[in-house]
Amino acid sequence: MRRSQLFLPTLKETPAEAQIVSHRLMMRAGMVRQTSAGIYAWLPMGFRVLKKIEQIVREEQDRSGAQEVLMPTIQPADLWRQSGRYDDYGKEMLRIKDRHDRDMLFGPTNEEMITEIFKAYVKSYRDLPKNLYHIQWKFRDEVRPRFGVMRGREFLMKDAYSFDLDYPSSRHAYNKMFVAYLKTFARMGLKAIPMQADTGPIGGDLSHEFIILADTGESQVFCHKDYVDFDVSGQPIDFDDVAGVQKVVERWTSLYAATDEKHDTAAFEKIPAEKRVTARGIEVGHIFHFGTKYSEPLGAKVTGPNGDIVTVLMGSYGIGVSRLVGGLIEASHDEAGIIWPEAVSPWGVGVVNLKVGDGECDKVSGDLYAKLGNAGREPLYDDRDERAGSKLADMDLIGLPWQVIVGPRGLKSGVVEVKNRRTGEKQELSPEAALNRLTA
RNA sequence: CGGGGCGUAGCUCAGCCUGGUAGAGCGCUUGCUUCGGGAGCAAGAGGCCGGAGGUUCGAAUCCUCUCGCCCCGACCA
Questions:
Q1: Which residues in chain A, range 338-367, keep a C-beta under 7 Å from any nucleic strand B atom?
Q2: CB proximity A409–strand B (7 Å threshold)
């Protein structure tokens, strides 16, 4: 993409309403535009990041055996009357009426709907287990939206729903999601720690929140320091290996980790003082096992192996996709701007032509841009006729992991500069060597 | 939903107390100079001062009502 063509309205000054760093940087980098309190339009750069995150989530869900569907944003109220949540959910649920005066709502979640779909088709234990997910916009009419996209009213969420015949199988479904989440967040370059959590209005007997540590996190969290060094990224996992998956879960639940609501001071103090971590955290995922809470009232039953009728056991598993955009920035930025982890960066490499109009600069920049593109590096080429300083500052602000800086001074001695955004480290290389460095 | 604050140019804000025909910086347009970390000079464009009532000869400014947004708290993916 050529910067001169791109709709990327960056700002030198920070809009007044943005308080926390991720919100400020998202506004300055021209990623989103607020249209009402807690509701945002996604501009090209923001949208690209959102899609990258969404795709990682999708791939890891698929890998764990879940299947993607797409349910509507608007739901009929009757469905929610059956589960009893139409009245329970309160004012957070946006209620609307259609032209026939029928009660509808903008879905805050989809347990009722997925259960209704499931029960319409699945009648036999032979069709179990199943895990269905979708990635869809939700609406919760928060009293006080804040922190930009991290706590909006409209938000993009991945929610998965598992259906099983008995507890061991249902527990395995929960464990699979647990492990898939660890891998999902690790791929994005995030350290997400599973913590015991409150089940809230969703209900259930087993639940973990996946929390990333960041100074501006919404809630106080407490955990054992060793979690910070745990790693899942390396080895592949066989999701059909029940014991193996269980082992990973056990490892990640062996030490103390809890959010404020579930915090047990006595247990925490048993940890050696130097291993206690008290920090702020951002919830980016939440998994629940809730048994028959929805399958019972909505009548999701199958015929078991002995001919008996069994109410299926369910779990639900959420990831805040749009929230992650803010969360990633909270976890990775500096004074100059955003620092995207490679996997979610809107473009892979920024090519900065410091002197547009100079024959040699134009030629080398254009050539690097074309070759990086052919190599699948998704380059962003700043070919605007702007001052060098403003282009460099802009490139730092939008945070692409790599920059190639092409200027007349370097070209005199046949070199361009390759800069790592995170470390700030710069290397002077010939254009060919730079290309190799960035496509290796 | 309680408490507080703010709505003036695309953005950051001044002007309001003490009413008198709308300001600055950044950004934008044009020209010249500059050109490796958010340039300089010059000339421009751009605002029913959130909206509605009221007071007044006259309202961005005073009064009333409304709408929107932000912050703290309670609540939440």
A1: 354-355
A2: yes
CB hemisphere CA count around A438 (13 angstroms): 37
Condensed to tens digits (0 to 9), the pLDDT of residues A15-49 reads: 888 889 999 999 999 999 999 999 999 999 999 99
Encoded amino acid at A62, one letter:
D
Whether the CB of A281 is less than 7 Å away from nucleic strand B comes out as: no
Rounded to whole angstroms, the Cα distance separating A88 from A97 reads 19
The model's pTM is 0.96
CB atoms within 10 A of CB A439: 14
Task: Indicate the SS3 state at residue A434.
Answer: helix
Q: Distance (Å, rounded) from C-alpha A107 to C-alpha A334?
A: 37
What is the model's pLDDT at position A202?
Answer: 57
CA of A307 to C1' of B7 (A): 68
Contact A294, A115 (CB under 8 A): yes
Would you say the C-beta of A392 is within 7 Å of strand B? yes
Please give the average per-residue pLDDT across A63-89, as a whole number: 93
In a 10 Å sphere around its CB, with 0-12 CB exposed, 13-18 middle and 19+ buried, how is residue A301 labelled? middle
Tokens of A217: 């996190």
Q: Which nucleotides of B are covered by protein (CB under 7 A)?
A: 1-2, 11-13, 25-27, 34-39, 68-77
Query: Model ipTM?
Result: 0.92
